[in-house]
Structures are given as structure tokens and as C-alpha cells.
Amino acid sequence: MSKVQFNLLPDVKMQLVAAQRKRNLIIGLAFLVGAVAFVIFLVMLITVDVVQKKQLSNADKSFANYSKQLASTPNVAQVLTVQNQLQTLIGLHQQKHVASRLFTYLPQVTPTDVRISQFSIDFGQNTMQISGTADSQQATNTFIDTLKFTTYKVDDKDQAKSAFSSVVETSFGVSTTGASYSLTIQFDPILFSNNLGGKTPALTVPKKTTTRSVMDNPANLFNSTDSTNTGGQ
What we know:
By secondary structure, this protein is α+β, with helices and mostly antiparallel strands. The chain is about 45% helix and about 25% strand. The chain has 6 helices and 8 strands, in the order H-H-H-H-E-E-H-E-E-E-E-E-H-E. The strands form 2 sheets. The chain has a 5-stranded mixed sheet with strand order 5-6-2-1-8, with helices on one face.
């Protein structure tokens, strides 16, 4: 014989029971969320107030210990000074001038009938002083024009630039045996720069001029009374 159950609770009572269940669920969830938030708060409090303070204290102690060790190092001031100087070597190397390029440039721009007896260069002012003798005044004029119209490139893709922006004949003399001259020349500092990535400027000399480099005979470039000086350093 089957049993039959009847729900005798009125609708209001059922709604009340459902509401109580929801309330209990909400209270339980709120309690759980509050507990989790409290745990997070405790973890953050311990991290900030304990762990970080401990780390800062250890860092201060380590700094003090290392400072004492550094202070007790013999000649520490001299060591640090030497290290600082070593760090500047690269910059100083890039700033210095490659004066040895003179022995490549001069034979390229000096005609075969012109000789140099005195030469000086000032890298600070980017000027050269050249004096000497020539077979004729015409040879001196050719030398001056060669310098004026000589150009250079650091790379083949570069645009040619004037190597010597100013060439002034400060004095000259003419005799039955030839001519003498003195020149003041303003040159582009790139010609002697040491900061070109290992490249060397290449001069382009007017083709109408026969120079010692063309004749492959630079030996007689200087007279026996040569005087060469570099300055500006």
C-alpha cells in the first residue's frame, strides 16, 4: 500500500524558510570572504612590518661591512684613481690625432719640382706651416692650386669635401736658381681624426698635377735641412 504525503505548510511559511536559507548562505559567504581578507591582511602586515624591515636591516649591515672592508683596503684611493683613469683611455685614444697620415698626404699633394724645408702642424688650430723651395714660381703656384682643389672622402659613398679650406702664401722669393715660399694652410680636422671606425680619409688630387706619389718618388720631398714639428697637443 503506497504512502501519500501532503505538504501542509502554507506558502508564506515556505517563502520564510527559503529566505532563511538564502540569509544563512549569504552570511556564510560573507564570513568566508572576511576570513580570506583578514588572512591576506595579516600576510601583508607581516611582509611589510617584519620581512622588509629585516631585509633593510640586513642590507644596512652588509653595506656597513663592505664599507669597512673597502676602507681597510691598502691604497684604495690610488686604486680607484687608476681605474677612473683607465676608463678614460678609450675616449683619449679617440681624441688623439693620427699624425702619421702626413707621410701619406704630403707626397700626394706636393709636385715633383717643389721641396719642403720646414714644416709644422698645429692640431689645436688645424693649421699647417710649410716653407721650402721650388724650381720656379710657377711650381709654387701649382702647389698652392693643388692644395686648394684637393678633396677627400672617408667612405666611397660620401660626398667629396675640401681637404684644405684655406691656402695662403705668406711670403715668397724668386732668384735665378728657383723660388722660395712659405704657406699657411687650414686643413679639415677629419683628415687626422682617430674616430673614423678604422677608416682613413682618401685624398683626390687634381689630375693635371704631377706629384711625387704619381711619380712614385717621395724620397726628395724634404730638403736636407728639414724641420718638421707637430703642435697643438
